[in-house]
Design goal:
Chain A is mainly alpha-helical. The relative contact order of chain A is 0.21. The first copy, chain A, has a two-stranded antiparallel sheet with strand order 1-2. The structure holds a DNA duplex (30 and 30 nucleotides).
DNA sequence: TTCCGTAGTTCGGAAATTCGGAACTGTTGA
DNA sequence: TCAACAGTTCCGAATTTCCGAACTACGGAA
């Protein structure tokens, strides 16, 4: 398995962030992850209620989130721990992530995390 | 020519906004439009400095921006006047557009509008 | 009225991207 | 050593994007 790539904070592009979160599944996953207390594993985030995301698609979603700079992934034993980079990101793009999550949260019938 | 479609404020989806602005050319166009004083025409926004966008691509960019709810387009004689829907949008998704434009503006060597 | 120029739209096919099943890798526990 | 599990990679099918060429809409000149 190739080593995981994480962009440095200063290399993160807002377009990449917007692109990553413009996919409804990725946005749902990210919102869940941002709301969760501990670092979420891929499989724990796979269930979106209305549909279970196939493994390969999930893996790709996490790759997109990771390489856009939104999350940090780390192998821990057999599974992968993912956590948001919210704090860092807010330094670089003040208010951006917050505004996106708020906008998403305002949609009816969503963000019903656990 | 088909009539232009503009979504009602309450039908605007944040995913659509993020998608529309995740394309570097559209983001550049939108930033220019948001910075411009009058409503910009398509051709006035076509020149991105490093490249001139083909007409058909431009037309499609404006369609995406319009149908995502980011801009309002209105035919005025032979040309098309475009204006942002910033104020309305800020009501629905507080801080979102501002944060995106700020993030984009922080990139080095951009937003050098005229 | 017809004709011309300008501004933008639509069409259609080539190129690029996304999706997801099947096979694979890396890790742990028995 | 083996089996099971979590996630990754591969690769072909389906979808989307891109953009040149043809087209439409409007306004002005004659």
């Amino acid at each position: 398995m190739r080593p995981l790539f994480h962009p440095a904070l200063e290399d993160i592009k807002p377009e990449a962030i917007l692109y990553a979160l413009s996919d409804p599944e990725r946005l749902a996953i990210y919102a869940k992850l941002a709301g969760a207390s501990g670092g979420g594993t891929c499989s724990a985030l796979a269930d979106l209620g209305d549909r279970v995301i196939p493994k390969s698609s999930l893996s790709n979603h996490f790759k997109v989130l990771r390489e856009s700079g939104l999350i940090r992934s780390e192998r821990q034993g057999v599974e992968m721990r993912n956590q948001t980079r919210c704090t860092e990101l807010d330094e670089r793009f003040p208010g951006l992530i917050r505004a996106i999550l708020t906008a998403y949260g305002q949609l009816p019938g969503q963000l019903k995390t656990d």
